[in-house]
Design brief:
Blueprint: H1 19-30, H2 41-48, H3 55-86, H4 90-117, H5 121-124, H6 127-130, H7 132-144, H8 146-149, H9 158-176, H10 181-192, H11 197-227, H12 234-258, H13 268-285, E1 307-312, E2 317-322
Antiparallel strand pairs: 1-2
Helix pairs in contact: 1-4, 1-11, 3-4, 3-9, 3-10, 4-11, 7-12, 9-11, 9-12, 10-11, 10-13, 12-13
């Protein structure tokens, strides 16, 4: 069993029980990157220009840097201080160590951005307190995960296991699977317009990492469900639906406040529709009926997670290639 298995030796990784965890680890390695690989000179020139970016676009960039800079630390703390302790399966722990490293890379990305643009770190790194819609999202996740961060918490009873699932859903499904995605759409839409392409490339890599984190978390949740079916009651599922609906409301408020006037080809309502579409996909991934029944208003975003990463050493820059299986031939 993935939890409460006294026969499991967390130091003995072979033979493996959950091969999906091993595959997630390999996929993470295949997307290995560092922020310094991505040139930022064009972004710096656009940022310094008085005409390249509108005030709305500047606000959107700053708010997303502010939210993600502290959100990544929050997710890393959850892995190291809570999830790792209670999931003792060795191949799952191997992946969580990889994920913790990736969260450190993401945190370093926002340090790199602040340094590149000469931003005030006090402004960026305190937005979780000074911007209401960012604070509401962070406070919501902290409340969802408070049980498991208690050093005396165990997963010995059915109620404990439900609390652990509650934490896992709050962390993986809501924080990484919903609260990040309006920001991804905003930053990558700017990149499509040729604006802040360096930051956009970094957000592409972060989005790919987060897609793997979400997939791993969903597999853990579904495995706990399968091994402890008595905890997956209709009442519990209904509570999770309500949590997802509340999370969507917070993300919609963030989208409207950070991008009230929209940007070229996009507006707050489309971002909200995208969040609802994403929320339905997250619910279905863990076996709960979807709520919103929306279509994806940004189908181009799906290609961001479908591209493989290779290094063109002659250009010393990161380039992207479609996997052969995803190409369409005439």
């Amino acid at each position: 069993m993935i939890i409460n298995n006294s026969a499991t030796d967390p130091n003995k990784i072979l033979p493996m029980t959950y091969m999906w965890a091993r595959q997630h680890y390999k996929d993470g390695v295949a997307n290995n990157w560092t922020p310094e690989e991505i040139p930022m000179q064009d972004d710096i020139e656009q940022w310094k220009s008085s005409t390249a970016l509108s005030e709305g676009e500047r606000k959107l960039i700053l708010w997303n840097l502010g939210f993600f800079s502290t959100a990544e630390s929050l997710t890393a703390n959850n892995i190291v201080l809570a999830v790792y302790k209670h999931i003792t399966n060795p191949e799952c722990r191997q992946y969580m160590l990889r994920q913790a490293f990736e969260e450190a890379i993401h945190t370093d990305t926002f340090i790199y951005c602040c340094d590149s643009f000469g931003l005030n770190p006090e402004e960026i790194y305190t937005m979780y307190n000074t911007i209401p819609s960012i604070k509401e999202k962070d406070d919501f996740v902290v409340e969802l995960t408070k049980h498991v961060l208690d050093p005396t918490f165990t997963t010995n009873t059915l109620e404990d296991i439900q609390n652990f699932l509650h934490n896992m859903i709050g962390y993986y499904v809501i924080m990484e699977g919903i609260f990040f995605y309006a920001g991804f759409a905003m930053m990558l839409s700017l990149k499509r317009q040729g604006k802040m392409v360096g930051i956009g490339e970094q957000f592409e890599y972060i989005m790919r990492d987060e897609s793997l984190h979400l997939a791993f978390g969903a597999d853990v949740i579904n495995t706990i469900k399968a091994e402890n079916p008595e905890v997956w009651t209709q009442s519990f599922q209904s509570d999770i639906q309500k949590l997802i609906m509340k999370a969507v409301q917070f993300e919609e408020a963030y989208a409207r406040e950070s991008c009230p006037d929209g940007i070229v080809g996009m507006n707050a309502e489309l971002f909200c529709e995208y969040v609802q579409y994403i929320a339905d996909r997250r619910l279905e991934r863990i076996g709960i009926e979807k709520i919103y029944h929306k279509t994806n208003p940004f189908p181009w975003l799906s290609t961001t997670t479908d591209l493989s990463k290779e290094k063109n050493f002659f250009e010393t820059r990161v380039t992207e290639y479609q996997q052969a299986g995803s190409l369409e031939w005439d």
